[in-house]
Amino acid sequence: MKMRLLFAPLALLASMLLPAAGFAEDWESLFDGKTLKNWDGNPDFWRVEDGCITGQTTPENPTKGNTFLIYRGGDVGEFELTLDYKIVGGNSGIQYRSFEVPDNKWVIGGYQADIDSGDTYSGINYGERFRGILANRGQKTVIQEDHKPKVLEQFAESADLQKHVKKDDWNSYRIVSKGFTFTHYINGVKMSECTDEDAEMRRNAGLLALQLHAGPPMTVQFKNIKIRKLAPAATSSVEKKHVLLLAGRRSHGFGAHDHTSGCHLLAKLLNESGLPIEASVHELEKDGWPAAEKLASADTIVIYADGGGGHPFNSHLEELQGLTEKGAGIVCIHYGVETVTGPPGDAFLKWTGGFFEPHYSVNPHWTANYKSFPKHPITTGVEPFEINDEWYYHMRFREGMEGVTPLLTDLPPATTLVQVDDEGKPILVEENGQKTYKLSRPENAHNNNPHARKAVLEDKTPQHMAWAVENANGQRGFGCSGGHVHWNWGHDQFRKLFLNAIVWTAGLDVPAGGVSPGAVTVDDLLQHHDEPIPEDFNKARIAAMIAQWNSK
Question: How many degrees, rounded to 5, is the angle at CA 398 between CA 412 and CA 245?
C-alpha cells in the first residue's frame, strides 16, 4: 500500500506532460490585472487588489449566501483553463458551464472546481445547486441517469493529494472540459475526473464564475486567468444546429439598418457561445437569394433586411413554407417584420404570429422601457432595460393572439402620434367643425393612422414590440420591431434577447441565465459595415453610451 501511494503522484504528474488532443492554438487572458472588465459581481465583496481579483468577507461585511463573480465575456463549453489562486479561510471554487439562478443576482449553479482552505475539498468536482458532489478527490466517476456519481476508480488517496496543495499560499489550478468529461488538476497533479452521462441534467456550455462562500470570514485571490478553446469532442452526442442569417441590402445610411454588420455580429456571438450551433451570414445584395440546399440546411432563418412590398421573403413564400413545415424557425428583425397583406402577411402570421401591416401599424422613434417580461425561454436572463429605437407598434397579430406570446411590451407615449400640451395631454384642433388630434406625424402607410391612435390615446392599450410562437409541428418563430439603430447592438440586454430568440427558434434549449451576450465594443460594431465610416464619426460618444448602458 505504501509503495502504491508513493508512486501514484509521480504517475499522475507524468500523465500531465503528455500532449492534450484537440487543443486550439491560442490562449486568451480573461483578466487584465487592473480592472474587473468583463466580470460582474457584487462590488461589496469583489475588487482588484495587488494585481489580483480579490473576493473578501469580514465579520462586519458577511455574505448571506454564496455569491459569485461572473465572467460576461462569453460562455464556455470545451476548454482548458488555468489560473493561480490563494485562499485564506473558508472555501471557494471555479464555476464552469454554469447557469444563473433566476431572481437571485450573482448566484450561480453548475460544475465547480472546488477550492478549500481546509484539507478535504480542493480539487473535487462539486455540482453547485446541481446534484451535489460529482467526484471527490482521488476519484474517477461517472454520473448516471439517476443523477448520482458512480466511482469507477480511486486513483489516489485524498490525504496524499492534499500534500500537493499549499496552505495560505499560491497554487495553480487547471481545468480540462472536454466533451462531457471534466478533469481537475492542482499544481500539476490530477485531483478528480468526472464523466457526465446524465443526459437529462448535464450541460454542454454555460457561464464561468468565481465563488465567494458564505460562512466564516475569508479572502480568496485569483490571477493569471487564461483559457483556450478545445475542438469539440468527436464523441459528443449533441448535434449542431445551423443558423442562417440573411443580411439585406444597404439602407438608411451609416449607423442605421446596418444589416450586414448586425448579422455578422450576431453570427460571431452565436459561434462563440459554446452552444452546439453554427451560424453563417448570407449577404443578399452581394450574393442574391441563397441556393435551395443552403436554405434547407438551416434550422432557423434570420432575416434582417428592409421589408414591405420589397421584402425578400415575398417572392419565396412557397419555398419558405415548405421549410417551415419541416420545422425551420423564422426570425424577423426590425424592417424585416413588415410585409404586405394577402399571401405574404398570411405567411408571416403562420411563421411568427405577427407582422407590420401598412396603414395599421406605425413606426415612430421613441424610448421604450421594458420593466418586466413573461416567463419564456427567450426572456431567460434578460434584465429590464430602457432604450431608444424605431420601435414599430400596433402590429397585426393572429386573431385573439392565438399561440402568440408577447415578449416586449410598453405603452408608447402620445407624442409618437400627436402633439401634446405642457401637461402632456394630446392637443385637439377643430377641422370642418369637428375636434381632432393635432398630429405630430402625418398619416400615411407608416407614420400614423386612426387605428393606432385609438389603441394608444383612447384605449391606452400597451403595445407589443417583440413576440414569439411555437406551432403544432414544433416550428418556432420570433419577431421584434427594434433594430433600426445599429449602436443598440452594444446593449447587453437588447442583444441577449435576440440571441436567446435565435437559439430557441433553432430548436435548442436556451441555457439557464440566457445566451451569453459577450462583450461588444465600438470596434466590434464597426466590423462588416456596408456603408463607409464618416470621418466625423464620434467613436468616444458611442463607447460612453455602451458603457453607461451596461454598467446598470
Answer: 80
Model confidence at 13: pLDDT above 70 = no
Helix and strand totals (H; E) in the chain: 11, 30
Burial of 14 (0-12, 13-18, 19+ CB in 10 A): exposed
219: enclosing H helix or E strand: strand 218-229
Read off the DSSP letter of residue 439.
B
Here the cell at position 284 is 443578399
Q: Tell whether the model's pLDDT for residue 8 goes beyond 80.
A: no
What's the rounded Cα separation, in Å, for the pair 8 and 155? 8
Instruction: Cite the beta strand spans of 45-119 per DSSP E.
Output: 46-49, 52-57, 67-76, 79-88, 91-100, 108-116
Residues 6+ apart with CB under 8 A from 285: 247, 248, 249, 250, 530
pTM of the model: 0.62
Dist. CA 21–CA 233, nearest whole Å: 10
- Ordered DSSP codes for 151-214: EEEE-S-HHHHHTTSPTTS-EEEEEEEETTEEEEEETTEEEEEEEE--TTT--SSEEEEEEE-S
pLDDT at 44 over 90: yes
- C-beta neighbour count of 365 within 10 angstroms: 11
What single-letter DSSP state applies at residue 88?
Answer: E
Question: CB under 8 Å, gap of 24 or more: what pairs does 42-49 form?
Answer: 42/67, 42/105, 42/106, 45/212, 46/212, 49/221
Rounded to whole angstroms, the Cα distance separating 548 from 552 reads 7
DSSP H or E stretch at residue 437: strand 434-437
* Tens-digit pLDDT profile for residues 144-155: 889 999 999 999
Confirm if 262 and 55 have CB atoms less than 8 A apart.
no
Query: CB neighbours (10 Å) of residue 533?
Result: 11
Q: Which three cell numbers stand for residue 482?
A: 427594434
pLDDT confidence bin for 79, thresholds 50/70/90: very high
**pLDDT tens for each residue of 309-367:** 999 999 999 999 999 999 999 999 999 999 999 999 999 999 999 999 999 999 999 99
Q: Which domains does the chain have, with CATH numbers?
A: 2-229 (2.60.120.560), 241-411+462-550 (3.40.50.880), 412-448 (no CATH)
Q: Classify each residue of 75-109 as buried b or exposed e, where b means 16 or more C-beta atoms within 10 Å of its C-beta.
A: bbbbbbbbbebbbebbbbbbbbbbbbbeeeebbbb
Give the integer Cα–Cα distance in Å for 485 and 497: 16
**What sections of 216-274 are H helices per DSSP?**
259-271
Contact call for residues 193 and 141 (beta carbons, < 8 A)? yes
β-pairing verdict for 189-196 and 218-229: unpaired
Q: Count Cα neighbours of 213 within 13 Å in the Cβ-side half-sphere.
A: 21
Query: Where on the phi/psi map is residue 97: left (φ > 0), alpha (ψ -120 to 50), or beta?
Result: left
